[in-house]
Write a structure and sequence with these properties.
Largest sheet: 3 strands, antiparallel
Order of helices and strands: HHEEEHH
Number of helices: 4
Number of strands: 3
Shape: globular
Strand order of the largest sheet: 1-2-3
Structural class: alpha+beta
Helix content: 25-40%
Radius of gyration: 15 Å
């Protein structure tokens, strides 16, 4: 468990789920439901609690090709195919 939080000085605002905010879910509790990952066109922050994207960012296709072809350090599979999250 984290006893002391380290906060980034460069982050100006945080990604929050509007539905969680309507339900008055604490920001740190929302973190249990947030998933961040690469898609076919970019990066997505997703709320698992409400099954909806919080934000989607389009990224350079060349960069994405590099990301999708990298090997996962934990299992050696393509990082986009690693199911290590499911094993936890």
């Amino acid at each position: 468990m984290i006893t002391e939080r380290i906060i980034s000085e460069s982050i100006k605002s945080y990604c929050v789920c509007n539905e969680c905010m309507k339900e008055d879910v604490d920001y740190h509790e929302q973190g249990k439901y947030r998933m961040v990952g690469f898609t076919d066109v970019g990066l997505e922050v997703f709320c698992e609690k409400h099954g909806s994207p919080i934000i989607r960012l389009r990224l350079n296709p060349e960069f994405l090709n590099t990301v999708h072809s990298e090997k996962c350090s934990c299992c050696g599979e393509s990082s986009s195919n690693c199911d290590n999250q499911k094993k936890k």
